[in-house]
Protein: Pentacotripeptide-repeat region of PRORP domain-containing protein
Organism: Brassica rapa subsp. trilocularis
Amino acid sequence: MSQFTLPCLLRHRISILSGAAYSRTAARLSSSSTLTTSTTEPELSQPPISSDILLDSIRSSQWHFVEQITGKLTPSLISTTLLSLFKTPDLALNFVNRIDLSCLDFPTQCLAIAVVSKLSSPNPALQLLKEVITSTSISVRDIFNELVLARDRLETKSTILLDLLVRCCCQLKLVDEAIECFYSMKEKGFDPKTETCNCILSSLSRLSLTEKAWVFYADMYRMEIKSNIYTYNIMINVLCKEGKLKKAKGMLAMMECFGVKPNIVTYNTLVQGYSLRGRIEGARMVIKEMKSKGFKPDLQTYNPILSWMCSEGRASEVLKEMKELGLVPDSVSYNILIRGCSNKGDLETAFAYRDEMMKKGFAPTFYTYNTLIHGLFMENKIEAAEMLIQEIREKGIALDAVTYNILINGYCQHGDAKKAFALHDEMMTDGIEPTQFTYTSLIYVLCRRRKMREADELFENVVGKGMKPDLVMYNALIDGHCSTGNMDRAFLLLKEVDKMRIDPDDVTYNCLMRGLCGEGKFEEARELMGEMKRRGIKPDHISYNTLISGYSKKGDTKQAFMVRDEMLSLGFNPTLLTYNALLKSLSKNQDGRVAEELLMEMKSEGITPNDSTYCSVVEAMSNLEQDAEKSDN
């Protein structure tokens, strides 16, 4: 007699559980005893797994056994088991977690989700729904229909399963599919919960699809689905995004008329709406009203005001007010202060806030580091930016996509293509997929280095990867070809832009006009400005300065001043570039008297002349000196 080997013991265990020669009671008894037999005893055949055996194993938490037989479970057996576990969804979830959901057929997957949806927490069912939606080619409509069938099999009246599908679509940013599910629920006579509607409205608001939000809200009203405090808060936020602040306050009054009391989120949403539009006094009026209703302003109230006032250089006013109310800045507040100082080029104060933030126990976030790195690049402090990156790496923090893009763009702006492409390669090695912004920066630096063949190749690679170029990328490439005089390629790219149904902008045309002027084709450039206007694109001061500079280089003072007059008539103020271009033209024609008058006009407009200005004036006035010498002689 020898003791069983492990494989033999497992086979014997299965035969006991299957009921071969033993009752379930005997099976339980023998499983707790030491089993021995002769090695010459014939091997017992393994019978098929029954639903009763599987259920017994699940209910007694014999998960090792369940995992052993997973490959032998049929969809029919799994479905029968899930139906039996309907009243114990926690066990159903444990069972589902031990089988590969993707290997099940579609109806069984949906049944599993339906049973798991009975749990008090919606998260497990949501996770399973995400797996099905993202890992299959089955449409959300088909998933909806199958879930309805699963719901019928469970003989339940609850709509929570379908509500969860809508919520899942919203989380995956499939808002159109979520709306489709909503209307399908109504068609089948199910009443979606207000919370489900709020989920759709919130998604539409986050995606700035405000028009769709109003259409959906109107349908809610028509279907007599009651709005709650969350519904009103979402729609007030939509109105604030649209800049309709008066209507947003009107909705606050309306909800109170319907007996729905606003909460602090309602008021904070209004404060943010006013702050984003720079209407700080309006924001303060809202704060005054919320105080009168018994609400105490918090950091969420003041951070939006702080953000605007920081950009105006008046952060200290808000910080003082916050201190008087006993509000201590949090990490969000500090990041706002750091961003405001960085954007103004005040990096010393920005880093001081970073240090203060750390002393208060707030760890710098990626946003903090990214803001500082961006600020350093903007101020041309490359070495300091590299030192900060080294600090991040020493802390064991892996760079994210935003950090890489800031670095790549920073090096590209400073013409360092080698470092930019090295970071691109490192980004790929780290498993971070370059974005459209990444490639636009790289194309820009190649164009700046006049490596147009490489720029075109990179552009084609981007398109070949299935990434749709945006207008910024096209503009970078068009500008590169215009700068190198390849106007045929530049205009071919403009045709591509139209073919892709991307609307060109003033930047597109300004690049083309500059390219034409560079080739001396001033009339064609002037015609291009006319084309801009016909397409509804308003020329800006750059457009006019480009033409003025073109005519000035040619020495055509008359046309240059005609464009200047047109520019003035449209309300554009001349810039330093405008005056310098006009003076350059006058210097070529040695028209000293007009140049002197233009210099006086320039100063009266508050524009400080530079070296180029004075050089042109001196050249223009040289003929006056020559005339004076002749008259003296």
The beta strands are 2-3, 36-37. The chain is about 70% helix and 0% strand.
